[in-house]
Structures are given as structure tokens and as C-alpha cells.
Write a structure and sequence with these properties.
- This protein is an alpha+beta fold and 722 residues long.
- The strands form seven sheets. Strands 28, 29, 30, 31, 32, 33, 34 and 35 form an eight-stranded antiparallel β-sheet that branches.
Length: 722
């Protein structure tokens, strides 16, 4: 319509308004009298893309409801329609106003194949490729819309502005066998080819080894989603428990006060969406990213069961991408970081012998003990952890042609200090050695970021060092780092390295000259605590720089010939600590004369799990042979008689109010009340130092539920003694 015609119509309207002004009720405008109606009755959407159903003349206080005829599309409360499967669907639109419902009609939605050549679109006959960021650029439709004539004179053509296609900032169909940022949240995750949801695909991600309702899979969002922006999340899940269970998709974040918060992505989804057994179910929802301190992640859990496995597939996040500045080190910068990370090569005698042993084709074992960084948290897949990467590099560099004579033990345990490491050293390192070996050739110790506030104040750390040195192992100390260059115990633990003249790797030193460069933090860290794959590779590079330096240096004489005769830096009280648990057999050590479980005769299956493969098993429990008291177990005490001078008790920390307190008695005297309940507990272990004496003596350890806690649970994980 031309401007001239519009002016005429306006004049006629004014005249009409004047004529009608004398009539009652003539103050209501024509526009207000118009009924809401559909702007379009058909939409064409490429698979994976979205469009919004538009409604003309919406009433301000009315609500509009949308319902799809089938699962080829997903329709949201806002009227946004997401295309899921090729075909057609009808979306019924209704208006609810003043308790009256009016049917506005149906919109026919045609879902077409993804157009070849567009970023983020793949032919539907093949599984989509995995990627973290896909920028989709909208293209103009074929031809323009509007008036057109055959006149030779030029005329203005109205061009329709296409609806912008949302950006896919993350998608993972798991077809490349990579979890692409997902890590186990408790339990463990793995790629499964048994079942999948992807059209033409073969893989999905399995959450297994679950021992608590919150166990599942988690992924950091800090580099994908920007605070204040709205994002759409979707994923398909499946469980085969034989009954319906709830599976939830949520976010966890730290608010600006540092408090941990949780929010469901699914509307009213704290208990998850009910998922019938044996069926793929879609989880979807929108999230406006809340204010946070930089730590935010999405996760999947099963709030209705603490044991079932479940599958995840076709994870997609749509929204505005974060403008992350990338950093890629040059060859020179990489070499500089590796060199800077070598704080000290120490006495090289033992390392040179190991290198030569590997060259000669003899079997060599590299063992790594530490916390979650050693275990490989955020490594994707877990084989990208620094421990395995460095062991593999060592084998290729110094071992047989295929490196098969170099063996590897990962004894990392998430969130644990050396207080726990020294108790489990025999079980998790020495007992896992290849047949014929009595010690690891090299022991890498990484506890410097977990030992803040540990009960032995570094004594257990020195105990590990001394025990390994006594056996003849070479010892390498690794000092990891948190954001922002938080070295935690490094300065204190360097003193142990200097005292015993040990090789030391400092990741703080490795990155200190690069940390403030734009994009470097995201290059190295996967979150505020753990490296990503590139960070783990750098840790391995630092280790291999140490090996290369030692290999090229002149051999030194071993400075340690008799550890027991060598004065300790702090204490030798924790050297040679042994573990007692419910599986300990009497007679194996004459120091242990009696073990009576009493009412602590159950087994707690929720004590945390190894992320890394343990003795050939994935997601093996940390302390399966524990002593657990249950509410109906009775009232008899747990009693252990042992000759010792050092005694450490390790008990569970749980956020469940079902757990309570137990009183500890030593030789009939009450020493402490131990509490399994901790609102921040996550089934982790806590250590109580019960004895540190000069000489060994016979002691009776008794544990019984505290008054008023008889109906509570309590789990003693293990004891350490010397």
C-alpha cells in the first residue's frame, strides 16, 4: 500500500471517528477489538534448527499454549519450535483469556534435511560430527517477497528479513568416541556402543558405577555460556532398570558470595523427568545463566536411584557463544614452559638407573599417587591425564621400540590428601605392581594442592617419600597449581625435596610468565581447579624435560643409602604405615591380634569411586572393605587390638542426615567423638590422628555409636597403623 492511499484511509478514519463520537462506547479502538490470530499457518525448518510461531494481535493478559502432534518437533512455552526429525507435525495454538480458551488454529511444520555446506548441518543419513562450537550463518531465502511487476521501469522490491538461526555452541553425539568435556560426577562415564539415539549413529555415553543419587556426568559451562544470556539445552537419556526413574539435567554454580547453588534446567525437574525403562526420553529446557564467580557446570543425575546406570546421547546447547580469546603457544614458548617447570633435577643417580634399565629392555614401573589431578579429572578421555601421557612418552623415548616394557600405575584419588595416601600406599601402589616387582621404579607424588589443613601437617607426605626411598624407588615431587596461580602447599613441600635432594616439578613456575596472557588460562585450565587436556600435556612435557635433563647429565652417586639412619625433615612417624580394614586376615601381621566388627558388620557401597581404571575394573570403589553400622545393626562395638605407635582412623563424610556420630575409645579411655555427617560431605574420607608415640605398645581400639545415634549410620573406612 502506497503512502497516498494510507493518508486517504487515515482521513476517512478521522471523519468516521468524529461522526461516531456522539455514540456511547465509541472510545474503544478498532485495534483493540481485533482477535488474536496466527501470522503464518505453515513453517519450514531444517532439522536441528528452530523458529518461532508468531501471533498477531496478542492480548496483553492472555496466555498462549502450544502442543505438537508428534515428536518430530519440540515446542516450547514461548512458541519456539525446534525441528528434531524429518517429516511433518502440526502445532495446535490456543489462547487462554479470562478463564476462556479459544483455538487459534494449527501451524503445519515441515522438517527438512540439513542443507549441505552450512556450518553445523550434516546430511541426515549420517551421524552428525561432534564439535564444541558451531557458528551457523543464516542465509536469505530463494528470491524476495513483495510486489513485483513486469514493467521495465525499476521498482522497489521488499526483501524479507530471515529469522536468525540460533548458534549451536555445543553438540556431542559421541560418535567420535570422545566425551568432549564431560567427566564423571561421582561414579564414572564411558563411551558405549551398545545403544544410541542418533540417527545412523552407534555410540552414546554411559553413566555407571553410581553409588549416590547425585552421581552421573558433568561438564564445565564457564567457557560456553555467558552470564545473563538465555540458552536452550537438550539431551536424550535412557535407563533399563525395569521401572520408571527420574533423570535430571541441572546446573551447579557458585554465586557471587561463594555459595554453591543448584538449578534445574527442566521445569519442575528437581526429581528429574520420569523416564520409562527401555525408552529414549528427551530432556530439554531453557536457562538464563545466573550470576556466578566463574564456576558453573551442567550435570545429569538420577535423583530417584543411587545405583542404576543410564545413557546420555545427542547433547545440544544453543545460544550466544562466549567470545573466548584463544591462546596457542609457539614451539619456543612450549619449550620455555617445560624448562621453567623443572624446579630441580635433584640427585640423578636413581633416575639415570631407571632410564638405563628401560633402554636395556627390562621391565620398568612408573607409579603416580595424588589427588584428582593425578586421577585425571577433566581429562577427556581419561587416558589424556598427565600420568598416562607421561608414562607413555617415557616408554616411547627410553623403552623398547613399542614401549611395552614400561608399566604404569595410576593411584590418584579425588579430593584426598597425603594423610589418606600414606594409609593406602601398600594397597594402591605396592599390591598392584607387576609380578616379580617389589617397588615402583619411579614414584611421582602429587598432593601439594590437597594437603592444606591435613591432620599430619605434612608428616604423611614425608612418610610417603621416606617409604619409597627406603625401598629403592626414585621419587619425583609434582607441585600442581589452582587458579589464580594458587600453589597451596608448594613452598612448604619444596623443603622436603631439598632435604632429600629430590627432582621437583613446579607447574606454578611453568606457567607464571604466561598466566596473564589473554586466553592462556582457558588454554591450560579446564575449571578453577584442574587442567584440561592441554594442561595435562604440559605437565607431561615438564616430566619429560626432567628425564631428558637427567639423561644428558653426568651420573651422580646416590645420596641416600640408609633412609632409617637419615634424620627426617619433620617426622618419620608415618613412614611404613599399614592399612587395616574388614578384609584384613588375622595372622598376616602379628601386630594385629583381634578384630571384632560387632554392629559395624555391614558394607557401605557409597564411598567414592576411582575415575581411572583400578586393577582392570572401571569405577572401582575406594574402600569396599569398610565397617558400617546401620540403624538396625545392634549396639555392639567395633574392636581392634593392635600393637602400634602411630594410629590413624579414616571415616566417611556424608551430607545425608542418616549418618551420625560414634565415640572412639583407646584402651578404655574415650579419646574423641567422630561424626560421619557433614553438610559438605560427598562420601569422602576424613582422617583422625589417634596415636603418635615413641614406642609401639599393645592397644585396644573401640568404636561405638554415641548416645542418641544408635539409629544412625556410621562408616569406618579403614585404619592406618605403624
Amino acid at each position: 500500500m502506497g503512502n497516498k492511499n494510507r493518508k486517504k484511509l487515515l482521513c476517512h478514519g478521522l471523519v468516521l471517528a468524529l461522526v461516531c463520537s456522539t455514540a456511547a462506547g465509541a472510545t474503544v479502538s478498532d485495534a483493540a477489538k481485533k482477535k488474536a490470530k496466527l501470522a503464518k499457518k505453515s513453517l519450514t525448518i531444517q532439522k536441528g534448527a528452530s523458529k518461532k510461531i508468531k501471533i498477531k494481535y496478542k492480548k496483553k493478559k492472555a496466555k498462549y499454549k502450544f502442543k505438537a502432534s508428534n515428536k518430530k518437533v519440540k515446542v516450547y512455552k514461548s512458541g519456539k519450535v525446534k525441528a528434531l526429525k524429518i517429516g511433518k507435525a502440526k502445532v495446535t495454538v490456543k489462547e487462554v483469556y479470562k478463564k476462556k480458551t479459544r483455538n487459534l488454529g494449527k501451524v503445519t511444520v515441515k522438517v527438512t534435511k540439513k542443507t549441505a555446506g552450512k556450518s553445523g548441518n550434516n546430511n541426515s543419513s549420517q551421524p552428525p560430527s561432534n564439535t564444541n562450537v558451531v557458528n551457523t550463518t543464516p542465509t536469505a531465502p530463494n528470491g524476495g517477497t513483495g510486489d513485483n511487476n513486469n514493467s521495465s521501469s525499476p521498482t522497489a522490491t521488499a526483501t524479507a528479513t530471515p529469522e536468525p538461526t540460533p548458534t549451536i555452541i555445543y553438540k556431542n553425539y559421541f560418535e567420535d568416541g570422545d566425551t568432549n568435556g564431560f567427566t564423571g560426577r561421582g561414579g564414572s562415564i564411558e563411551i558405549s556402543n551398545s545403544e544410541n539415539h542418533t540417527d545412523g549413529g552407534m555410540n552414546s555415553m554411559l553413566c555407571t558405577g553410581r553409588a549416590a543419587t547425585w552421581h552421573g556426568a558433568s561438564m564445565d559451562l564457564s567457557k560456553l555460556c555467558e552470564t545473563g544470556n538465555v540458552y536452550q539445552f537438550s539431551a536424550w537419556v535412557k535407563q533399563d532398570s525395569g521401572k520408571s526413574e527420574g533423570i535430571a539435567m541441572k546446573v551447579q554454580y557458585n554465586d557471587l558470595d561463594g555459595n554453591t547453588q543448584y538449578k534445574s534446567i527442566i521445569e519442575n525437574g528437581d526429581q528429574g523427568k520420569t523416564c520409562a525403562s527401555g525408552q529414549w526420553v528427551e530432556l530439554s529446557g531453557e536457562l538464563k545463566v545466573p550470576d556466578n564467580d566463574g564456576g558453573i557446570s551442567m550435570y545429569f543425575e538420577c535423583p530417584t536411584s543411587d545405583s542404576i546406570d543410564f545413557l546420555i546421547d545427542d547433547v545440544v546447547i544453543i545460544g550466544k557463544p562466549v567470545d573466548n580469546k584463544s591462546f596457542t603457544p609457539s614451539v619456543e614458548q612450549s619449550a620455555q614452559m617445560a624448562q621453567a617447570g623443572l624446579y630441580s633435577s635433584g640427585n640423578n643417580a636413581r633416575l639415570k638407573k631407571v632410564i638405563q634399565k628401560a633402554r636395556d629392555g627390562e621391565d620398568v614401573t612408573l607409579a603416580y599417587i595424588g589427588g584428582s589431578i593425578t586421577e585425571g579429572a577433566l581429562a577427556s578421555p581419561n587416558s589424556k591425564c598427565y600420568a598416562q601421557v607421561s608414562a607413555t612418552s617415557f616408554g616411547k623415548t627410553y623403552g623398547k621400540e613399542d614401549g611395552s616394557n614400561v608399566h604404569f600405575i595410576n593411584a590418584g584419588m579425588s579430593g584426598t590428601p597425603s594423610d589418606i595416601g600414606v594409609i593406602r600406599y601398600q594397597r594402591d601402589v605396592l599390591d598392584r605392581l607387576p609380578e616379580g616387582s617389589t617397588r615402583p621404579d619411579i614414584l611421582f607424588i602429587e598432593f601439594a594442592v590437597n594437603d592444606s589443613g591435613c591432620v599430619t601437617a605434612g608428616g604423611a607426605y614425608e612418610g610417603l617419600i621416606r617409604e619409597a626411598l627406603k625401598s629403592g624407588s626414585a621419587v619425583v615431587l609434582i607441585f600442581s597449581v589452582f587458579k589464580p596461580l594458587n600453589r597451596v602447599c608448594e613452598n612448604d613441600y619444596r623443603k622436603y625435596g631439598q632435604h632429600y635432594d629430590l627432582p621437583m616439578i613446579s607447574m606454578g613456575d611453568a606457567i607464571k610468565d604466561f598466566y596473564k596472557l589473554e586466553g592462556f588460562s582457558d588454554w591450560y585450565f579446564g575449571d578453577n581447579l584442574h587442567p584440561n587436556n592441554k594442561g595435562y600435556q604440559l605437565m607431561s612435557d615438564c616430566i619429560m624435560k626432567l628425564m631428558d635433563t637427567v639423561d644428558k647429565a653426568t651420573a651422580q652417586e646416590d645420596n641416600i643409602t640408609d633412609v632409617d639412619a637419615m634424620p627426617a625433615k619433620k617426622t618419620s612417624a608415618y613412614q611404613g604405615i599399614k592399612m587395616i580394614d574388614a578384609a584384613t586376615e588375622l595372622g598376616a601381621d602379628t601386630a594385629i591380634t583381634s578384630i571384632e566388627a560387632g554392629s559395624f558388620n555391614a558394607k557401605d557401597g557409597a564411598t567414592g569411586n576411582f575415575q581411572y581404571e583400578y586393577n582392570g575394573a572401571k569405577s572401582a570403589p575406594w574402600f569396599p572393605n569398610n565397617w558400617m553400622h546401620k540403624k538396625d545393626s545392634g549396639s555392639d562395638s567395633l574392636k581392634v587390638k593392635v600393637k602400634c605407635k602411630t594410629l590413624m582412623l579414616m571415616y566417611k563424610q556424608s551430607s545425608s542426615t542418616a549418618f551420625g556420630s560414634a565415640d572412639l575409645y583407646i584402651d578404655g579411655e574415650k579419646k574423641a567423638t567422630l561424626n560421619c555427617y557433614d553438610k559438605s560431605g560427598w562420601n569422602n574420607g576424613k582422617v583422625y590422628l589417634a596415636l603418635t608415640e615413641e614406642t609401639a605398645a599393645d592397644h585396644e581400639i573401640e568404636l561405638k555409636m554415641a548416645d542418641g545415634n544408635e539409629s544412625k549410620n556410621f562408616t569406618m573406612l579403614a585404619m592406618g597403623y605403624k
